[in-house]
# Entry
Amino acid sequence: MTLDKPIIYDLIAAVAREAALAAGAVALKGFVDASPQTLQTEQKAGFFDIVTASDKAAEKAACNTIWSRLPASRILGEEGGWQGEGETTWIIDPIDGTSNFASGLPFFCVSIAAYHADKAVCGVIYDPVREELFMASGGRLTLNGKPVTPFLRGRTDREVEVLTNAPYEGERPSRAAQEAHADLVNAFRAVRRLGSCALHLAYVAAGRVAVAYESKFNAWDIAAGILLVEAAGGQVIAQDAGGRRIEPYEDALASVKRLVVAQAGFDYQSSCLSRLMADGTF
# Structure
């Protein structure tokens, strides 16, 4: 039987929510009941890029939930890579903010984006510590099932905070990167480095902060968050490695190398971020 689009979209959104809650439950248990076993870490790109046993278990919980409900699914997970086949695609970060998680800092989340027949269906970011589930589905943004209508925090750099994890761990920042960070500190009311790219994007979508900037991430870090910001009517400015602006659709996510998301009324063109994005030095 072939389901029509509205029905399959609703099913995918329901499964995305279930998968995020399942992964979040595993992550929260690993965090609350922390032990050398749950926090057993392995390095990926280096000492600054780790994975724990809980990351792997949370991703397995999400994948099992999806395949039990929608077997014809292919999944890109941070830990497992591409798995499965089907017309529905899922991009999963089981614990975004793993360093926070492993250090005992309660700021991490599950991030899941879903697409069907090359169309974005929904994005879910779930913070299990605060029991907050941000969801973009059907063209609207909700938080724990209730519609979110953000109000503008401020139009200019001087009036707002900016969230960014830059400059990034793993190497000494270049002089250009240090200067760019100094520009942010000089321009914005405050610069915050919270350690979870996905939650940065969710907070902009929900109106808790006006703007966020990132330049070191993978598709699973940004896929759901971009959908949240779009559902809230916010701005998404994505660039490839050459500084060309691109639309961050499913197939183009891997090409996005610099990203700004902002509330709808924020004056991005007058922001120092606009110049830094044009320079491509941060």
Observations:
- The helical segments are 5-32, 53-69, 98-103, 175-187, 197-205, 219-231, 272-279.
